[in-house]
């Protein structure tokens, strides 16, 4: 025992000496970091891949610029393609550093290479590269590269991620790295300022991105500069003996704070009235036990100013939808057996649109997503959306689909089968993919041929689409649930915590503006109570599963009311 104590003391002394030496070496390394001016010109990235990844390549300079601004406070000039060389344009604009990047196909993946050149000395200030398994990962690797550049070129301690890099990530630079917070961590309450420039004139503007323009009649408080910073619970409903898988606002709140919402489980739809700060039960629509409700949404299909309730369900091994219209105090079915999975696109080419995708054979969904119109008796297909449904991610179908305006373009917003939030280009490829998981549900369905080895058919997880804030303009603000998955996740069946987040599109990505604390209860869906605009004091509604029916527990859920400030 005495010898063990002696060894323990010796180990403690060695550890202390090692710790002190590490601190001294780290301080020495920091002191010797190169003192480059934090003024850098960023050239357009070049693609060395045979396939067309031009959409992804085009956004990389702006992404790396915004991160260098945020991490190192750098003054960044974005150079235009064409004309004089990048080096000459940077020198003419009096920027001492030039950042150039390429993306090359490497086997089945991609290599992203970045070189920073000291133009005065004509030598490299640093060289960096990362590997991406697919096109979607190219964008996520930019955050890793930006952290290394900020530290190793500008000597900014605390710029590199604390977490271990993904396999295939390598950085080469003159100075050793030090562990620091992840640059992809939650954004601060305010937006990230970005400097942009025009190389031809040698002028630049160091200012925040312009505020979004209103897209809803009457404008939006978002356009006047307000940014959400907190989400607080103010009321909740009584206990619902079911697992609520989602929620939607049926009638938007009036001037007195009254609204009607619908939350739904596998077979029932529960309507609640919002009266001021009370959440009161109103009525329940019960479907047959063999039916499985996949989604519930609302849309004014006949243009009378009142929303109809759209329900898509799995009925007798067939995906079909039906429409409920309010007559007096009850909802009646006015159309049924619609062989489309229905989705509402809240902002598509300047107005809401109803879209759908047809049922498949071996897979639940088949063919193009089409815009649907009401002819007075039924929904009829109209124009097809150009997005390819034969490639990932829309290969998984229209589940989790939404839309929004991004600048002067309208994009599909999509939560994929792995619960990552994506923004798609016109061809259906991702121009953005989140690292966090959003829109997860504890619900799935089976489809297709029977798999004898598994004793079942293939499982398809159901996802909840992101909700677009009314009036968010050209930089959409969306609300969605975020899930931290459990270690034994089976089709969304396991999780550690969930929370509600408000994300706004800025400089090529969604940044968090506000959110709730993580909860051990499962937040399964959310919606805005207002349909006209969104500002300080606006309210949102959330469905939460307090207790699942697993392990012989009694199911329990509630409807929660939150206020955003």
How would you summarize this macromolecular structure in one to three sentences?
By secondary structure, this protein is mainly β. Helix content is 13%, strand content 45%.
Structural overview:
It is a single chain. This protein is mainly beta and 565 residues long. The chain has helices at 2-31, 54-72, 86-92, 135-152, and strands at residues 39-42, 46-47, 75-78, 97-106, 109-118, 123-132, 170-172, 194-198, 203-207, 231-236, 246-251, 258-264, 268-275, 278-286, 292-299, 308-315, 318-327, 330-338, 340-348, 351-359, 365-374, 379-384, 401-406, 409-415, 420-424, 430-438, 444-451, 456-461, 467-468, 477-485, 495-506, 509-515, 522-528, 539-547, 556-564. Helices cover 13% and strands 45% of the residues. Strands 23, 24, 25, 26, 29, 30, 31 and 32 form an eight-stranded antiparallel beta sheet that branches. Strands 1, 2, 3, 4, 5, 6 and 7 form a seven-stranded mixed beta sheet that branches. Strands 10-35-34-33 form a four-stranded antiparallel beta sheet, with no helix packed on it. Helix 2 runs parallel beside helix 4 (135-152). The longest helix has 30 residues, at 2-31.
